[in-house]
Amino acid sequence: MSRASSKVTFPENIRVYKTDYSEPSLISALEGHDAVVSTISGSGLKEQQKIIDAAILAGVKRFIPSEYGIDVCHPKAMEIVPFFNQKQQINAYLRSKESQGITWTSVATGPFLDWGLQAGLFGFDFKNRSATFVDEGTQPFSTTILPTVGKAIASVLTHASDTENKRIFVHSFRTTQKQLLEILEKQTGRQKMSSGQGGVFELLQAAMFKGGCGSDFETEFEVHNDLLELRPDNL
Ligand SMILES: NC(=O)c1ccc[n+]([C@@H]2O[C@H](COP(=O)([O-])OP(=O)(O)OC[C@H]3O[C@@H](n4cnc5c(N)ncnc54)[C@H](OP(=O)(O)O)[C@@H]3O)[C@@H](O)[C@H]2O)c1
């Protein structure tokens, strides 16, 4: 589904339903579908409440909310990253609707590794050869590459009963900022990156790389890679 006003383009083989997010439009888009996978942006998170209401009326069986990060329900993480509260509220809304016939699965993946390295989310500024570390960069955290995020979501739907009304944690690896830097330096043959100042992702980095804030799935939660039959990735 895409807004009528949207300038986003899609590959030709993707069927796109243009919607104004009104109830009749959403119901007509959702009727006959088993699941909704929401990838709505941070600014549109609240719209999900309307989509969930319409999904229930349309008989959709499973809703996957737009989460895909560290544990957005972690109290410390919510304190550090205010917009996690909106994701947590959608999670609570889904729980409150279980009796109306819809099921949900939220998918925590940690930061996207491949996308995040390019975007500067991991604290590495390739142009200026600088690195910003949280707590010396030694705290382990879970991270997932985008293809595995996609496989995990597909696998949630093919393991529908095992993942019903659950928070699911998947990752490609458990690593640290320091380990990533070592690999980057080795792979690029570059000189050591100097220590730099914080960037636009400071808030997220503070929660993701600090430890004890819901980002190290192996120690804080159960990792569900085996349940979803995800093959190991190679760091
Ligand atoms: N773990 C990570 O490293 C990581 C990284 C990035 C994102 N994420 C998460 O992934 C999810 C998707 O993020 P994204 O960056 O991919 O999103 P995005 O590209 O910024 O936006 C996705 C789509 O949301 C729709 N949208 C935007 N504003 C809207 C509004 N006000 N009302 C309705 N629809 C709206 C737009 O679709 P149309 O224009 O087609 O209507 C847009 O193309 C979020 O939950 C985000 O936090 C995680």
From TrEMBL:
Keywords: NADP, Oxidoreductase. GO terms for molecular function: oxidoreductase activity. InterPro entries: NAD(P)-bd_dom_sf (IPR036291), NmrA-like (IPR008030), NmrA/Isoflavone_reductase-like (IPR051609), PCBER-like (IPR045312). It comes from the Eukaryota. Residues 16-191 form the NmrA-like domain. This is NmrA domain-containing protein. SUPFAM superfamilies: NAD(P)-binding Rossmann-fold domains (SSF51735). CDD domains: PCBER_SDR_a (cd05259). Pfam families: NmrA.
